[in-house]
Amino acid sequence: MNEEQDGTNHQAGQWMAFQQIWGETFTKMMQLGCTFSPDSAPPDFMRQMRSGIFQGLGQSWEQFLSSPEFMEGMKQSMNSAIALRKMTNDMFSKVRHETHAVSRDDIDAVMLTVRHMETRVLDRIDELAARLEEVTGHLSGNGPPSAAAAQHEPTPKPQANKTAGNNPTSRS
Amino acid sequence: MNTSTANPWAKWQESLVTESFAYARRMAQLPSLHHRAQLVKKGASPSTVVYEEDRLKLLHYPGTQPPRHATPLVIVFALVNRPYILDLKKGRSVVNHFVERGFDTYLIDWGSPTYADRHLTIDDHVNGYISNVVDFVRERAGAPQASLLGYCMGGTMSTMFTALHQERVKNLMLLATGIDFFTRDGLLNLWSRPEYFDVDKFVEAFGNCPAEFLQMSFLMLKPVQNLLEKPLNFFEKADDPQAVDDFLTMETWLNDNISVPGEVYREFVKYLFQQNLLVQNKMPVGKHTVDLRKITCPVLNIMAKADDLVPCAQSMPLNDLVSSQDRKSIAIDAGHIGLAIGGKAQRDVWPHACDWLAERS
To answer: Cα-flanking dihedrals φ and ψ of residue B171, to 5°?
Structure first.
């Protein structure tokens, strides 16, 4: 019962917001109509009227687009779009699996595995680089570099014209 | 006898005839528009691709003279839309300003992400791609540091990069860059509030953030202006070849959208729009946390007063958050795109920005 009432109130709110937009637009048009005279050149007058209408409409729309009614409507439509997309994704995945084909989910799983492996390898390289720097520091008698500096200095060696696959050379 | 006294509506009749002819002239131009739109050139200045990584291409603008400044300039564009807006056409090219003034200029073209790129994060872009590009450019130019110019989302990433790798950045220039996302000035900030927009569910369902979704969101920021006023204003100038050319070039760019990698989109919405972590010096980028106080290089922050995408209030706080002694803000009467290609920006802002950079390069 309460939900039904909420729905009705929500619709009434939206309707009021729309009424306000058009009400303000027509008021603006009427105001401009009062300046109408044979002396005003038609193109200028029309442009003035058009600009007034658009200005009024623009302001009202801006108000409407930031109103709770619009935000609630946007949230509902986004949720519906997401649900629909999920449903289609699931359906296509099922069809592909049933036909022993590869689905997007499978590709995603492989991509994630590759990324996790990449992260682990790069982390290990960073560690080794830091240790190497430490050792080099000891050998040259300058002492070890600070931990913070070591963490911030995984300066990657650029590889020009590297075009193969999704394989960034260094991260973090 | 005065005509207006004899017939007060004579002016109206005369105008009606003139306007009817003008209307017919404009209508006659419409069928050729599609063909003319196909001829729009993307990018005005000559460039060569000098570095590639995955979908990223680094464009180098050689210019007619050898570079006059020791520090190369890397322009970091946003992940939304294509970067040729910064080199749109002759007389409307930000890139050309810098090339003409003798800067060794590079521009990052991120390319169009595929579904496989949905897991790319801000860390991949900042500590991966931008880092590699900056190192490549430094090595190529034989310079210890590079200057960065970031536009919009590219500005936010450039800021993060500078905070994490200050030693590699000589100067930081930002153009319409979002820093403080808790301002109430922008509709995007309102629409992305967590109670109305579940970004996790969105990215989970869609993978990358679809280009059409972004385009629609940008159109809805000013629906009356974008969907009604703009086409009507264009029609009134349809018989002016220069105006038509400008319009088609601009529209080609506006509709040349690309999707944003899902993870980047999730992090931007969640950490910046919803939690505003950058100004709190808590923004996580991979294993690091961005601390804006670590930025010590000269900063030039350029903003547009009529920007509905990144309102001035979003960019303004940066200069108070960095440790740089040499910092400057410029705000002009323009919109988000007008800041790059508008007549006022081309006349006043870019020559000034070139002077600023020349003194520090």
So the answer is: -140, 145
